[in-house]
């Protein structure tokens, strides 16, 4: 959970004293989608896709790992048309992984000529 989300949760907890009940437990763990009184999984798909589009690829992957719905929406080809990898090492293994996962990739920014050889 990011710092901004934690702050929002702490403010909403002051407003609405959230009681943790059996409904918020998911296999012995807190269901983080509803802890703050907001069920993020009920957002319309278009809204979630728009949210994903504002994130960098690392944050997209992080958000997509939170639940099955976000994983499905986060893997849509329309979100992976371009990647900026200038601040990351890019090798042959990464190039193969991208070619398999990002079929819709049209623009790729990478740091150096060594990375171009990997492609």
Automatic annotation (TrEMBL):
SUPFAM superfamilies: F-box domain. InterPro entries: F-box-like_dom_sf, F-box_dom, LRR_dom_sf. Residues 37-83 form the F-box domain. It comes from the Eukaryota. PROSITE patterns: FBOX. Signal peptide: none annotated. Pfam families: F-box-like. Transmembrane segments: none annotated. This is F-box domain-containing protein. It comes from Gossypium trilobum.
